[in-house]
UniProtKB/TrEMBL annotation:
<dbReference type="InterPro" id="IPR003439">
    <property type="entry name" value="ABC_transporter-like_ATP-bd"/>
</dbReference>
<dbReference type="InterPro" id="IPR003593">
    <property type="entry name" value="AAA+_ATPase"/>
</dbReference>
<feature type="transmembrane region" description="Helical">
    <location>
        <begin position="137"/>
        <end position="157"/>
    </location>
</feature>
<keyword id="KW-0472">Membrane</keyword>
<protein>
    <submittedName>
        <fullName>ABC transporter ATP-binding protein</fullName>
    </submittedName>
</protein>
<dbReference type="GO" id="GO:0005886">
    <property type="term" value="C:plasma membrane"/>
</dbReference>
<feature type="transmembrane region" description="Helical">
    <location>
        <begin position="111"/>
        <end position="131"/>
    </location>
</feature>
<feature type="transmembrane region" description="Helical">
    <location>
        <begin position="254"/>
        <end position="274"/>
    </location>
</feature>
<feature type="transmembrane region" description="Helical">
    <location>
        <begin position="228"/>
        <end position="248"/>
    </location>
</feature>
<keyword id="KW-0547">Nucleotide-binding</keyword>
<feature type="transmembrane region" description="Helical">
    <location>
        <begin position="30"/>
        <end position="49"/>
    </location>
</feature>
<dbReference type="GO" id="GO:0005524">
    <property type="term" value="F:ATP binding"/>
</dbReference>
<dbReference type="GO" id="GO:0016887">
    <property type="term" value="F:ATP hydrolysis activity"/>
</dbReference>
<keyword id="KW-0067">ATP-binding</keyword>
<dbReference type="InterPro" id="IPR027417">
    <property type="entry name" value="P-loop_NTPase"/>
</dbReference>
<dbReference type="GO" id="GO:0034040">
    <property type="term" value="F:ATPase-coupled lipid transmembrane transporter activity"/>
</dbReference>
<dbReference type="Pfam" id="PF00005">
    <property type="entry name" value="ABC_tran"/>
</dbReference>
Length: 575
């Protein structure tokens, strides 16, 4: 790349000298200068063609490297609260540097732009030397305005991209609304509610909010072009006149004069071109935002990747005076105290928004309490690098990976997939019949765009997520956390599942969140969360005898179920 760039940038000066040489030999044998000039021309062509491919290769390698750096930084922190902040989300989008808009440039393009700019100075020195050989005083006359021109071009592009980056929020929304009509999952609702026109207008509004100021600036840039033209034409015209006058009046060599003229032109064309500046300035945000993300998302010492670790028994887990909120003005946990005994099957119930899922996220360590501690056998889980390997979690919003069934399950535990263990997890999750019905069984891709690929129903995806967690349990995890793992399952499948989970005895602690109270009644203990703390705690019988909120909820659900309704309850129904 560097060699090619050097050839490209020095060819104008060599061409200028060769042209001058040719002109001095016109009356005699001009074979040698003609050959040199032809070689310069040929080399320029070959270099021009091959450099495009090499540039593309270099750009894609640099961009790939940058993208994996962004992905590494984005997934490097053990907690997720910082990732959820809007400003960090914006930084991530900007650092990803997707060339989704015509003005945005990638780091690869920027890096190449910077390299070419550097090489341009080599070409500049060569051209300036040719001009200087003819007349040293002509060098500053040409160089000073050329540098001024370059300064103005850089300032213009800086301003362009500053305005562009200032509308980033609109750009983000523009992309969001623009991608919505293309998604399979959104297609139904958009049609049912007749949202097509509304969506297109919204998309266009955001586009204009973002780009109108940019276009306004660019129009001003276009209007200023004549000043830039004057800045290059005036000194060039002065140089041309001086060279022509001296050549005519003093009879100096036409060849040397024409070499000087060509080199003078070279100085301006080298400094005036704005393509590299645009690429450099356009890619600046992607690069500086990655640097800022590196600062902000610096992993803590114990944020090492999850490893298998030595399997050990389930610990005593203690939530000690936990306070937590996603934002300071909306506390979710307000002094929560809870012990989870080793091997216990604990059910957590409560109304929507009571904080049940938040409890699982705190237990998984993806959020840290604002105050208080979560201890596992006396050690704060925040200080335990192995903590994650002891947990298997099915989050409410688990990921549906577009991989095969087996690959989806194997993600539950690092290392080489164990097929026997995968099959065991599939059966335990009640997913065996579904897998047996698939043409390629465990190797079936769960992606309809792939050959032989299928999609699963909501309940089947949930069983698959459960199988992933059970695979992790088989490979050494000792705490199984299930956040509404059966919301999409029918009552019988759900019952079978919980009967099977009961078979792990003291080797596994299970924390189960469910709205279906008939499911959790067999748990060793049930805790009811309300107002950021444990409001009731005991076995089903104890809580029924207490006659509190749990008993009320249970009775209502039982009545509804008897009358043929769904047995879920919303808070308002109790009032
Ligand atoms: N990522 C988040 N950012 C900001 N607020 C959140 C976030 N997740 C949850 N919340 C808020 O925290 C509170 C507790 O939510 P959580 O999901 O823990 O409740 P839940 O008991 O699991 O509810 P549900 O039964 O509906 O699943 C709610 O008020 C919710 O709006």
């Amino acid at each position: 790349m560097v060699v090619q760039g050097l050839i490209m940038e020095t060819l104008p000066a060599v061409g200028a000298v060769a042209t001058g040489w040719l002109l001095t030999r016109l009356d005699g044998d001009f074979t040698a200068p003609l050959i040199v000039l032809g070689a310069v021309f040929l080399l320029g062509q070959i270099n021009g063609i091959s450099s495009r491919w090499i540039a593309l290769l270099a750009i894609s390698r640099i961009d790939n490297h940058h993208k994996s750096a962004v992905a590494t930084v984005a997934t490097g922190t053990s907690t997720v609260e910082i990732i959820e902040r809007q400003e960090v989300q914006n930084l991530l989008k900007s650092a990803a540097a997707d060339p989704g808009a015509w003005t945005e440039k990638t780091p690869g393009q920027g890096a190449l732009g910077a390299l070419y700019i550097l090489l341009r100075y080599v070409g500049l020195i060569a051209s300036a030397s040719v001009v200087g050989a003819w007349s040293p005083w002509l060098v500053p006359i040409l160089l000073l305005p050329a540098f001024a021109l370059r300064g103005i071009v850089i300032r213009m592009w800086k301003r362009h991209f500053r305005i562009y980056a200032g509308g980033f929020e609109h750009h983000r929304r523009y992309r969001y609304w623009g991608e919505m009509p293309l998604k399979r999952s959104e297609a139904k609702e958009l049609r049912v509610f007749g949202l097509s026109e509304w969506l297109v207008n919204r998309h266009q509004d955001e586009l204009h909010n973002h780009l109108d100021p940019v276009w306004e600036n660019d129009r001003a840039m276009a209007r200023a072009q004549w000043r830039l033209a004057a800045l290059s034409l005036l000194p060039l015209a002065a140089a041309f006149c001086a060279i022509a006058y001296t050549t005519a009046a003093q009879g100096s060599s036409v060849g040397v004069a024409s070499a000087a003229l060509t080199a003078a032109w070279g100085i301006f064309s080298l400094l005036a071109s704005s393509g590299e500046v645009m690429n450099m300035e356009g890619s600046r945000h992607g690069i500086t935002d990655l640097a800022e993300l590196r600062e902000r998302l610096r992993p803590a010492e114990h944020d090492r990747p999850r490893t298998g670790g030595e399997p050990s028994g389930p610990p005593l887990i203690r939530f000690e005076d936990i306070a937590f909120g996603y934002s300071p003005d909306a506390p979710v946990m307000k002094g929560l105290n809870l012990d989870i005994r080793p091997g216990e099957r604990l059910a957590v119930v409560g109304f929507n928004g009571a904080g049940k899922s938040t409890l699982t996220k705190l237990l998984a360590g993806v959020y840290r309490p604002t105050s208080g501690r979560i201890l596992a056998d006396g050690t704060d889980i925040a200080d335990d690098p192995q903590w994650r390997s002891r947990l298997a979690v099915v989050f409410q919003d688990f990921i549906k990976y577009q991989l095969t069934v087996a690959e989806n399950i194997a993600l539950g535990s690092p290392g080489a997939p164990d097929l026997d263990s995968i099959r065991k997890a599939v059966d335990e999750a009640g997913f065996g019949d579904v897998v047996d019905g698939l043409e390629s069984g465990l190797d079936t891709p769960l992606d309809r765009s792939r050959t032989g690929g299928v999609d699963l129903s909501g309940g089947q995806w949930q069983q698959l997520a459960l199988a992933r967690a059970l695979y992790a349990v088989d490979r050494g995890a000792r705490i199984l956390v299930l956040d509404e793992p059966t919301a999409h399952l029918d009552v019988r499948t759900e019952k079978d599942l919980f009967d099977r989970l009961g078979g792990h005895d003291e080797h596994l602690t299970t924390v189960l969140i469910s709205h279906r109270l008939s499911t959790v009644r067999d748990a060793d203990r049930i805790v009811l969360l309300a107002d950021g703390a444990v409001a009731e705690s005991g076995t089903h019988d104890e809580l029924m005898a207490l006659g509190g909120t749990y008993a009320h909820m249970f009775n209502l659900q039982a009545e509804r179920y008897k009358s043929g309704f769904d047995d879920r309850l919303e808070e308002g129904e109790l009032r």
